[in-house]
Design goal:
Shape: elongated
Largest sheet: 7 strands, parallel
Mean pLDDT: 87
Strand content: 5-15%
Distance between the termini: 88 Å
Oligomer: single chain
Length: 964
């Protein structure tokens, strides 16, 4: 058997050039560790090629050529689907799996484990004595899990053989190696494979047995290579410092990604850097901001960043979010998902593609505004069949919502992949893929070719018989949701199928650009100048990951790779890159607050490398100011300091002619509150009529919704009480019991208006069992409170909120005439109390406002003025008003706010104080316009629009007037 020939290449030589120069090409196979080094070798070989019988191949491709499977091999999603089909009920129970998607992680670990066993020729029958003797015995759960995996492996093999397939975990084994396809080659040259698995060693032995010449190249010092075992001994940088090429290493330390990238851009502008190494470039946000004219980025792009992927993801989320409401037998679509679909341009613009840009924008804004109004109405769901849209406020935007729900409805009837493909092919009611993709994708990428290729591959899942019945994959017991969840499951499978795919962008640019690649792709390649990003602990080297099933100690005894093996390999990749390059720029980060530390590899460089070669830089975040100044100066966004110090910068000027055409300010309590607290915000909300749009639909019973429900329950309770009222004695509030209230609650919650506002999930159970009990006790307490006010058995005139519907109560009343304030405007107010009670016998007027949240005494003053005291100030001492906190069963009267010890203010004093304070605000509005308040606590609303940051900075510079 011929010996193995070893050759060692120093770091200051070009490894690939050396291999091609030293080795004969005829009948030779050159095996490289990865695709990138193979491409470089092919490029260098082309000028020397003289029709030699030569093969360039990666180690992965080489191993594929050594087996002759009798059946097609399953890969990727197809093997995962087959894996799930092979599971028995007991397997699913043990691993807590109820549907296909919950099995994906287990499947990944399953296949990785057996592939590792094959690579290291590990016997499935683990000899426990070895582990016991080395203090690494298995725990009970490990043994039980392993037994299940062995059982599933047999089940999986039997299942795929029955349907005519095989898997590499059963084929790629030592005893099945067959070199027939490579028999015509005499020489096999392995180019700098750092780590040889036991399986790869078996391949080399097989080649030797067939009298093939084996040549192994290392770009490492000879003394750290174990030639007998083809392993690398642990080493430090000191062991590698022989004949290296590096003449300068510049290490730049930053605090964050921004500073690091800005330092890189500055360095590339100053130096001739043409290669940048980043361990996960596409996953970092900064990858989206670099210019394609300067950087060769986006050569391959993940399909998960494409418009097609985003479109089908939204469609899947709409389908998957739907729920079946069994009482009324309706399929409901959460409004949150409707809002998300409108906020995803790749989805909503598909339906508006045929409109002009201006019309498209207008329609989009109308639809968003309409959905925001539905959120304001506390609507949580839409019917899949549009039935509740007819009950909602009218708007042209209803058409686009009906288009979306109708489109989703069609996809809800998908039962299999064939149905999905039919929808994609149908021109009348399907999806036109070309309408989805962006103009950039259409002009510069091959996205359509990749999409239709993956679509054909996806369709083959059913065509080749891997799946016969989709119901078993999604396991839906509810018959009403079965079809719906099957459709959403197939769509999820479809978008999962897209995730690993990539498509190419090709831009026409002038001149050479910086190439960006990963650390693993640099193996065997040398650079003149190279920059390496993110040389931080946890990235280079990779952070420790807890292995599946077995500990590192157990894995070492099984000859499986451990964290130390992986770290040693990465260490070699990194130092080989540094030592074979002329000039190296290393960009690292250190941020104690975020637990980011510089790489231990850099610490080795600082420890062992000659000092004259090292140069250390620290960005100190100085580039932040440069970038912001560039942006502000170019776009003129930065306000002049002279302007920001001027008080006029923080106010809107008053324009009575355009803002108050009828010479009158009309206020509800809400607008009054805004005017008093923050005139600037009052202008935005009530003059400019702008409001913040909610970003999320409340996934709970909001205080406002609970308040609305409570109001309606109390009004319903009054209806019941009217039926029980004694014509002679009136009401007996002391006898009100929970039965009245429970009847009112059931009737109220059963109303159609609450069907689409109350959540139909576990939240309703909490509401029904906890909140409803508090509401029942609170409302019962409210009627007992009326008894405490001695209202039982009296003649009463009851005016609940529902009675506020027409006539005088809708008309604003004048609080101040034009001559009473410096604005020279009438000030009119209007209110809407929850309940009013007139007691004719006592000549008393009582006002009540139910509260489930916060409240302020000025609201009661406003109600008293509006209902009674503006027209009849003489009734001041005969009018009383109260807040009642339903959930806390507490009451608070207006007079209580102004009571100190045994002394309290008279109603006239209370009203006079209120009016004086209000006039002060109005007169200030006349003098200063709509300005910001001095109190810091009142500056939170619309903080970005009101320039709160600049206002506080100004106040801090100029005065100490800001109050907390």
């Amino acid at each position: 058997m011929p010996d193995i020939h070893f050759s060692f290449c120093p770091f200051n030589e070009d490894l690939i050039a050396k291999v091609l120069d030293e080795q004969p090409h005829e009948k030779s196979v050159f095996i490289f560790p990865n695709e990138s080094s193979k491409r470089v070798a092919l490029k260098k070989f082309q000028p020397q090629w003289e029709f030699d019988f030569t093969l360039f191949i990666t180690m992965a491709e080489f191993k594929e050529n050594l087996f002759l499977p009798g059946k097609p091999l399953l890969k990727e999603e197809k093997r995962t689907l087959a894996f799930y089909a092979s599971l028995k009920d007991e397997d699913k129970d043990f691993f807590k799996i109820t549907n296909y998607f919950q099995s994906i992680e287990l499947a990944g670990n399953f296949f990785s484990l057996w592939e590792e066993f094959n690579e290291e020729n590990v016997d499935e029958n683990l000899e426990r004595s070895i582990f016991i003797n080395n203090d690494a015995d298995f725990l009970g759960w490990q043994l039980e899990t392993y037994e299940y995996l062995l059982k599933i492996k047999k089940q999986y093999q039997g299942h795929i053989h029955r349907i005519g397939f095989d898997d590499s975990i059963f084929i790629h084994k030592k005893e099945k190696i067959n070199i027939f396809s490579l028999d015509d080659f005499n020489r096999f040259i392995f180019v700098n494979q750092f780590y040889y698995t036991n399986f790869e060693k078996s391949i080399i032995e097989t080649l030797q047995q067939h009298n093939k010449t084996i040549v192994i190249y290392y770009q490492l010092p000879q003394q750290i290579v174990d030639k007998d075992n083809l392993t690398i001994r642990p080493f430090t940088l000191k062991n590698l410092l022989q004949n290296y090429r590096t003449h300068q290493i510049i290490i730049t330390e930053s605090k964050n990604d921004f500073s690091m990238i800005m330092a890189l851009l500055q360095q590339t502008a100053e130096s001739n850097i043409k290669n940048i190494i980043d361990i996960s470039f596409q996953k970092n946000p900064y990858s989206r901001f670099l210019s394609v004219a300067e950087f060769n980025i986006g050569y391959t792009t993940s399909f998960s960043s494409s418009s097609i992927y985003r479109f089908f993801t939204v469609l899947y989320q709409l389908l998957d979010s739907m729920l079946w409401e069994p009482e009324r037998k309706k399929v409901l679509v959460p409004l949150q998902n409707i809002l998300n679909s409108l906020l995803t341009e790749d989805f909503i613009f598909y339906f508006l593609k045929d409109q002009s840009p201006q019309t498209r924008k207008q329609t989009h804004e109308q639809a968003l505004k309409y959905v925001y109004s539905l959120i304001d109405y506390e609507i949580k769901y839409l019917d899949l069949d549009d039935r509740n849209l007819s009950h909602l406020p009218k708007s042209p935007a209803v058409n686009i919502l009906q288009t979306i729900t109708g489109f989703v409805h069609k996809f809800a009837h998908i039962n299999n992949i064939k149905d999905l493909i039919a929808r994609l092919d149908s021109e009348s009611d399907g999806v036109n893929i070309k309408k989805i993709i962006s103009d950039r994708e259409f002009r510069y990428s091959n996205i359509l070719d990749v999409f239709f290729s993956l679509l054909a591959d996806f369709m083959s899942i059913e065509e080749v018989g891997i799946v016969q019945d989709w119901d078993q994959y999604f396991n839906i017991s509810n018959p009403y949701l079965k079809k719906l969840k099957t459709a959403s499951g197939i769509l999820r499978l479809f978008i999962d199928y897209m995730k690993p795919k990539h498509f190419h962008f090709q831009y026409e640019t002038e001149g050479s650009r910086c190439e960006i690649t990963s650390l693993q792709d640099t193996r065997n390649i040398s650079f003149n100048n190279v920059a390496v990003l993110n040389v931080t602990e946890g990235k280079i080297p990779t952070g420790r990951i807890i292995p599946f099933l077995f500990t590192d100690k157990q894995r070492k005894l099984m000859n499986l790779k451990t964290y130390d093996d992986i770290k040693l390999r990465e260490k070699y990749y990194f130092f080989r890159l540094v030592l074979s390059a002329g000039k190296v720029y290393l960009f690292t980060q250190k941020n104690t607050e975020k637990n980011i530390e510089i790489s231990s590899f850099i610490e080795e460089l600082l420890l062992y490398f000659p000092r004259q070669v090292l140069l250390l830089n620290d960005t100190k975040d100085l580039l932040y100011g440069n970038i912001y100044r560039y942006i502000m100066d170019c776009k003129d966004y930065r306000p002049k300091k002279k302007i920001t110090q001027n008080p006029a910068f923080y106010r809107f000027a008053l324009d009575k002619k355009t803002e108050f055409a009828d010479d009158c300010i009309k206020l509800t309590y809400s607008s009054y509150k805004d005017l008093v607290n923050n005139p600037f915000v009052y202008y935005i909300k009530h003059i400019a009529e702008l409001n913040e749009c909610p970003k999320l639909v409340e996934n709970d019973f909001s205080p406002r919704l609970i308040g609305n429900i409570v109001h309606d329950i109390i009004n319903e309770a009054w209806s019941f009480l009217q039926q029980q009222k004694s014509p002679l004695l009136g009401y007996d509030f002391s006898q009100i019991n929970k039965d009245y209230i429970i009847r009112a609650i059931h009737k109220t919650i059963g109303r159609p208006k609450y069907y689409y506002t109350i959540l139909h999930d576990h939240t309703f159970i909490y509401f029904d069992t906890i909140i409803v009990q508090n509401i029942t006790d609170g409302i019962t307490g409210f009627f007992r409170f009326l008894d405490d006010l001695h209202l039982s058995f009296k003649e009463l005139e009851i005016l609940p909120e529902t009675e506020y519907s027409s006539g005088d109560e809708k008309i604003y009343k004048t609080l101040f005439s034009q001559t009473e304030n410096d604005l020279n405007l009438k000030v009119q107010i209007r209110g809407r109390a929850d309940l009013r009670i007139h007691v004719p016998g006592d000549n008393k007027h009582l006002i009540f406002d139910y509260k489930t949240g916060n409240y302020e005494k000025e609201q009661l003053i406003l109600y008293e003025l509006f209902y009674y005291l503006i027209d009849h100030p003489e009734k001041a001492e005969y009018v009383d008003s109260y807040f009642y906190q339903i959930l806390k069963k507490q009451s608070q009267g207006l007079r209580d706010y102004y009571k100190t010890g045994q002394k309290s203010k008279t109603k006239s004093e209370i009203l006079q104080s209120f009016k004086y304070g209000f006039l002060h605000i109005l007169n200030g509005l006349s003098q200063s316009g709509y300005c910001l308040p001095e109190q810091k606590s009142k500056l939170n609303d619309f903080a970005e629009i009101t320039r709160k940051d600049l206002f506080l900075a100004k106040a801090g510079l100029n005065s100490n007037t800001i109050k907390v």
